[in-house]
Automatic annotation (TrEMBL):
Residues 456-528 form the ACT domain. GO terms for molecular function: phosphoglycerate dehydrogenase activity. It holds the Pfam family PGDH_inter. It comes from Planococcus notacanthi. The gene is serA. Gene3D superfamilies: 3.30.70.260, D-3-phosphoglycerate dehydrogenase, domain 3, NAD(P)-binding Rossmann-like Domain. It catalyses: (R)-2-hydroxyglutarate + NAD(+) = 2-oxoglutarate + NADH + H(+); (2R)-3-phosphoglycerate + NAD(+) = 3-phosphooxypyruvate + NADH + H(+). It is an enzyme of class 1 (oxidoreductase). Belongs to the D-isomer specific 2-hydroxyacid dehydrogenase family. Catalyzes the reversible oxidation of 3-phospho-D-glycerate to 3-phosphonooxypyruvate, the first step of the phosphorylated L-serine biosynthesis pathway. Also catalyzes the reversible oxidation of 2-hydroxyglutarate to 2-oxoglutarate. Keywords: Amino-acid biosynthesis, NAD, Oxidoreductase, Serine biosynthesis. CDD domains: ACT_3PGDH-xct, PGDH_4. This is D-3-phosphoglycerate dehydrogenase. Its EC number is 1.1.1.95.
């Protein structure tokens, strides 16, 4: 099988060597496509690798009928419609660490260039203007740097600013007093940060919540003469508000690497002498480009060869060691879901999954997603996979609960799935038998030992002599061979079940006849 990869933004050639080395990977690099051309080109590709230029819109995703994975060789994924990708079962991976240093160094370069007006002075000198009066700067020492967004890059910037003997105050929803203390920074609300900072730098992702986080009101509470840096994403700072704030003298300097529109079209801001800018170069170092390209390439190869990834943005990442332990349960989980869909015959309203025994100490999210895949696939077909299974379940209003317990009733590990539907509640439990593969060991309250594969018949009947024989005879007459048979009962003479595995699916007519037999309460075919 060949895995087709389209690279639509310039990626480091050294960085994509994991892809070049992998067997069965066909790489197409086309970095000058217009959105229309990309839309025409995308079909047939299994993977798309991008940086920040390519806009991976819903429209594009809808045209990408073979796409399985999108790799973002960088951090920000605001150019990718994550919701559309998840809906279409496409994994999105990024390279979260590879350009942290590069972006932090660029932020410091911008901070220093701005404080000492280096670009402006150089520009004047280039024009043969030896002007020493116009370019008097300010020192960083003892000034306060306000950092809004204290993740990987924000923290690296803070560490460097402390090296310049600056005071640092940060805001991040995840920053605690203890952590701030450990990192040697002050912390407060966004307002606290904006009020006291001489320099403000933003390092949040661009989200609905951070769009225009630095707006007219934010500039109003800042110190007069504040200087501001955006090496994160265009749109975090409202460019119109920044323009006005610079014009009014409130903001003495601005250093921008990123813009609301890229490639940038509004040059108004750049006409202001207080503003310096670079064309989104934060991650543009040889080291960072190699590193991010290696990271996404490795994830694409890993997806292609093992179905697992490290840095998924739309699926929680599971450490490799844990993945190894839970992987054997993927198939069992999916089969339990499919088994219950056939058993209930109607849509689930609520699904309760209990992980018992060894599984209680593991990350079981992937198992739940596989179970939901099995449960939903019957009605929704191939469009469901483990990336979008949870999303689709939520969309369909299915409540999903996970529970863990160390008590596994004699099994090393046991997965019990209870499905509530409009027609009642059904249950099945499964385990992995040592060396013998998956087994369903309980259906509703009956103990069984069934290999969950092939064609099964679940028969409910009254516990009376002769019922089993009549079922066997009728199936025999219909030329349906019974491979295995399990029986279970609640109490002698009460309700009982039969679980048959048969060599081929029984015809609808045979099932009807079975259901009509005396003492039979119901017959459900299950095809796994
Ligand atoms: N100019 C460039 O070339 C580059 C730009 N970036 C941008 O920098 C951003 C940050 O990158 P990392 O530090 O690696 O990400 P990160 O995920 O480590 O840090 C982002 C931090 O922002 C915080 N945050 C979210 N909403 C916030 C809010 N409303 N107020 C304050 N903090 C908030 C998060 O809690 C998180 O700690 C990326 O999302 C990307 O857009 C990243 C690399 C290069
Ligand atoms: O990693 C990020 O978020 C960046 O902004 C880097 O963008 P780029 O890959 O250089 O287009």
């Amino acid at each position: 099988m060949t895995f087709h990869v389209l690279i639509s933004d310039p990626l480091s050639e050294e960085g994509i060597y994991p892809l070049r080395q992998a067997n069965g990977v066909n790489i197409v690099m086309e970095t000058d496509l217009t959105p229309e051309q990309l839309g025409e080109r995308i079909e047939g590709f299994d993977a798309l690798l991008v940086r920040s230029q390519t806009q991976v819109t819903r429209e594009l995703i809808e045209k990408a009928s073979n796409l399985k994975i999108i790799g973002r060789a960088g951090v920000g994924v605001d150019n990718i419609d994550l919701e559309a990708a998840t809906e279409h079962g496409i994994i999105v991976v990024n390279a979260p660490d590879g350009n942290t240093n590069s972006a932090a160094e660029h932020t410091m370069a911008m901070l220093m260039s701005m404080a000492r007006k280096i670009p402006q002075a150089f520009h004047a000198l280039r024009n043969q203007n030896w002007d020493r009066k116009s370019y008097v700067g300010v020192e960083l020492k003892n000034k306060t740097l306000g950092v809004v967004g204290f993740g990987r890059i924000g923290q690296e910037v803070a560490a460097r600013a402390k090296g310049q003997r600056m005071n640092v105050i940060a805001y991040d929803p995840f920053l605690t007093a203890e952590k701030a203390d450990k990192l040697g920074v002050d912390f407060g609300s966004v307002e606290d940060v904006l009020k006291v900072a001489d320099f403000v730098t933003v390092h949040t992702p661009l989200l609905k919540e951070t769009k225009h986080l630095i707006n007219k009101e934010a500039f109003e509470i800042m110190k007069d003469g504040v200087q501001i840096i955006n090496c994160a994403r265009g749109g975090i700072i409202d460019e119109n508000a920044l323009y006005d704030a610079v014009k009014s003298g409130k903001v003495a300097g601005a250093a921008l690497d990123v813009f609301e529109q890229e490639p940038m079209v509004d040059f108004r801001l750049l006409d202001l002498p207080e503003v310096i800018a670079t064309p989104h170069l934060g991650a543009s170092t040889f080291e960072a480009q190699e590193s991010v390209a290696v990271d996404v390439s490795m994830d694409v190869v890993s997806y292609f060869t093992t179905g697992t990834v490290r840095n998924s943005v739309n699926l929680p990442s599971v450490p490799k060691e844990i993945m190894k332990k839970i992987e054997p349960y993927f198939d069992l989980s999916e089969r339990l879901g499919a088994f219950l869909t056939d058993l209930t015959g109607v849509a689930a309203e609520e699904v309760n999954i209990r992980y018992a025994g060894d599984l209680a100490n593991m990350e079981v999210g992937p198992l739940t997603r596989n179970m939901l895949k099995g449960l939903l696939k019957r009605h929704l077909g191939k469009q469901v996979n483990d990336v979008n299974a949870m999303y689709i379940a939520n969309q369909k209003g299915i409540v999903v609960n996970e529970q863990k317990t160390t008590e596994a009733k004699g099994f090393t590990s046991l997965i019990t799935v209870e499905v509530k539907t409009a027609k009642g509640t059904r249950k099945a439990a499964g385990t992995l038998m040592n060396g013998q593969g998956a087994r369903i060991v309980k259906v509703d309250d009956y103990l069984v030992d069934v290999v969950p594969e092939g064609h099964l018949l679940f028969v409910r009947h009254n516990d009376r002599p002769g019922v089993i024989g009549r079922v066997g005879t009728l199936l025999g007459q219909e030329n349906v061979n019974i491979a295995t048979m399990q029986v279970g009962r609640s109490n002698a003479g009460g309700d009982a079940i039969m679980m048959l595995s048969i060599d081929r699916p029984a015809e609808a007519g045979s099932l009807e006849q079975l259901a009509k037999l005396e003492e039979i309460q119901g017959v459900t075919p299950i095809n796994l």
